[in-house]
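Hey team,

Filing this mostly as a record. A colleague (T.K.) asked me to run one chain through the structure pipeline before their review meeting, and I want the input and output archived in the tracker in case anyone asks later how it was produced. No errors, nothing strange. Just documentation.

Input sequence:
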Amino acid sequence: MTRAAALFIACIAALLVILPSSARALDIQEVTTEKGLKVLLVEDHSLPIIALSFAFRGGSTQEPAGKEGALNLMAALLDEGAGSYTGEAYQNRLEDLATHVSFNPDRDYLYGGLKTLSANRDAGFEMLRLALFDPHFDEKILNRIRDQILAGVRARENDPGSKAAKAMRELIYPEGHAYRQTTEGSETSLLSLTRDDLEALRQRIMARDNLILSVVGDITPEEVRKTIDRLFGDLPEKAALIAVPAIEPHLGDMRHVVYEQPQTRFAWVSKGIARDDPDYMAAYLVNQVLGGSGLTSRLSNEVREKRGLAYGISTSLSNARAVSLFTGSVATRSDFADETLRVMKAEMHRMAEEGPTEAELALMKSYTIGAYALNFDGASDIARTLTGLQVQGLPANYIDTRAALISAVTLDDAKRAAKRLLGDGNYALVRLGPLVK
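Output structure:
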């Protein structure tokens, strides 16, 4: 047994010990407000804290062509002045109320959250309401935040990981598809953005019909109904979203991005398995065995432990609204690149042909069940987990049934999922590094 595997097993044991208290059965209530907003609530009066997590469907895919980065900029500005509060005054008021407000966009959703003391519930929620309904988008602050984002965009132009990711998006997605862009946008698109662009986007995506809500903490169902309607009830009934069609990634091609540096980076993509597919849980466990579990995975063992070709190699299942992918990446010394690629392909082929072993599957089942406890370390974590369930289309009782679903995966299920993920050998590959001599 490798030292990494021994440490992994020890971590599993620790997680299973803390599981009963950390991932205790939650009493999840489904609350509906007078205005028809549905909320998952975990009522917990043990601490005087309330956490809210929410998501508006319609992420950066809703940006008009040429306005990429608008949602990211808008999200960064929502808590930089609203209502009667200037940017600094807004932040000072949040601090006075011991309240935290946050916004985070991705391709498919605009996420948000609030955490406050129950004694400051009304005042804290009012600050969030102002950010949602009456943000200033002050020009001076807008320019400052835009400059910060631009600095990051320019830095990523020379970052190997970002360059490889860009090449992969261009390889697998057609010209014009929203997934081809980053949430940050480009220098050109960012410089074109105005306050009117941000306001127009805010009005299109913030509505009641595309809103997901979760609340955890020191609050009753009746208080939730009143508070949520006061916060979100005046939003438009329906969002004006641009349809984003489901897409099949273009696979089978390889792109070499010439980049003179000591390292070569590989990124690869094959067709994934959708979150609502009956084989998803088996595919998740297969991914953990192959490359998703860090130092204990097959790929890490073969590439890092046995041969010393790279510090790390990983795989993951990626499920967006319009596409499901199986992805992986590794960075290695350029003189090790061909050997790394050979070993990687061999392990993927072996997984496709043989699947995981009974022992590998049992180990990953135990870890996956135990590690779930980490999602329940406090009100905010629980609220985000509940919102994540809703985003994925999972039922409220998934937290209670998840362990049984994992335990029910058989070796035949895992082998079938491995064949579906990797059996046809059809994937897109990006190689970023110096020319092969």
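Quick notes for T.K.: The longest helix spans residues 3-22. The chain has 16 helices and eleven strands.
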